[in-house]
Amino acid sequence: xxxxxxxxxxxxxxxxxxxxxxxxxxxxxxxxxxxxxxxxxxxxxxxxxxxxxxxxxxxxxxxxxxxxxxxxxxxxxxxxxxxxxxxxxxxxxxxxxxxxxxxxxxxxxxxxxxxxxxxxxxxxxxxxxxxxxxxxxxxxxxxxxxxxxxxxxxxxxxxxxxxxxxxxxxxxxxxxxxxxxxxxxxxxxxxxxxxxxxxxxxxxxxxxxxxxxxxxxxxxxxxxxxxxxxxxxxxxxxxxxxxxxxxxxxxxxxxxxxxxxxxxxxxxxxxxxxxxxxxxxxxxxxxxxxxxxxxxxxxxxxxxxxxxxxxxxxxxxxxxxxxxxxxxxxxxxxxxxxxxxxxxxxxxxxxxxxxxxxxxxxxxxxxxxxxxxxxxxxxxxxxxxxxxxxxxxxxxxxxxxxxxxxxxxxxxxxxxxxxxxxxxxxxxxxxxxxxxxxxxxxxxxxxxxxxxxxxxxxxxxxxxxxxxxxxxxxxxxxxxxxxxxxxxxxxxxxxxxxxxxxxxxxxxxxxxxxxxxxxxxxxxxxxxxxxxxxxxxxxxxxxxxxxxxxxxxxxxxx
Length: 558
Prior knowledge:
Elements: E1 19-28, E2 36-43, H1 48-59, E3 67-71, E4 74-75, E5 91-96, H2 100-110, E6 116-117, H3 118-129, H4 133-139, H5 146-151, E7 156-159, E8 162-165, H6 174-186, E9 191-193, H7 194-205, H8 209-213, H9 217-222, E10 228-231, E11 235-238, H10 266-270, H11 275-285, H12 288-308, E12 313-319, H13 320-324, E13 333-340, H14 348-367, E14 373-378, E15 383-387, E16 392-399, H15 404-412, H16 427-435, H17 439-454, H18 466-480, H19 485-496, E17 503-504, E18 525-526, H20 545-553
Parallel strand pairs: 1-5, 13-16, 17-18
Antiparallel strand pairs: 1-2, 3-4, 3-5, 6-8, 7-8, 9-11, 10-11, 12-13, 14-15, 15-16
């Protein structure tokens, strides 16, 4: 058959993509000398908002909320199509109403979270608005350098190349002061001396902390003992959320292959070991000194990352084994997720790899060789930080979502390939699901990680992941309520001998009806407790056959 054009390629009517050429007069109210003209080819079906964005990109105008597109002195509404507005090869005016105050407001928004150097502030401005800050100054008719512009602003302060936003602290209520203190501690590694807190508050709000709260800071914090702790040396730290020793909300389980007779094989799985042996082993692989050391190391690296990156970070969430409090010696991985203002909530494959490479470059310049860090490298979805004898840290970025529900809703609108990019957005819920389990359950999780690492697995595909071990342990604990570690381990190993029959759907964050329908047909099924689109035991990612055999033929200690 001869190659040629399909007869169907001409079925669209000729007016479907009607184009026209228009002249656009760009008028800068703050700097008429920089006015310009350009011709653009547009489609009648394009909206006013589309054309404004296009012209702003061509002319490098970073003021999206301060411009009007006008036809014969009439402002065109953003949602209107040009054809409906009567635009026919006409002349349009793009009136930019931005002023010096507009730029100061933009910079102030970027400084809400923390102080930035001039270079960081300029990079962040360029990242968010797509235009160099010097170009913004030029459009506004501001001849001075960026540093001089900052120095003359009443709401900004420049000290040793560090830019600070001067806030009005006199209007803060006690709850707002408390929230500001939490934020201040969070971005400074979780603890600070009282004198440093007072100095930073004065710097940020241009008013003393004591005059704002009307009392001594120690007395103020004493009333908030559930949230803050003051130790010797006047060091203030955030308290971890106190969780009662009760199991998580029981999962909704459609069938329960492992519940009946879980402990039948207790002697076979565990031999003659008593519970004390399990606790002695646990104390070796996760001593108090070890736990304290890795937590301090993670806090230090998190603080260093927060200081080194140029992004407008809303909050930082720590996950992985250290964040969940399930790390053991030799397995002290950690995940740090930065929730960043201004990131697009979709299309991660287009913007995320480029941004991660930029972040990796900034971290390499600031951190490589410091704190024992030996290597920093970026992949398409994360930055990995490693060092001899240190934590292995996986750094990820996430847009800011108003609620967990919003994140899950948007997740459901994506295709299967794109959904993997949204995992960091649920890190808070995923971490807390494990971190809030009773201490006895977390002890069992640590012991099961040790057991897994004593076995020889033929490939990565058959080795049970940390997440599989964590969820199986929680599920077993809720179903069987073991009285000691010996019984808890026996129950889990027996459950694993029937892992290929497992079907677990949690009810903590979503309902069964929210689960992506194709997953319900998979076996084994071990749902992610916070992501209704992920089966943690997906047969394409984990082959359970070797786990079933290993759990059936080995004992825990021998």
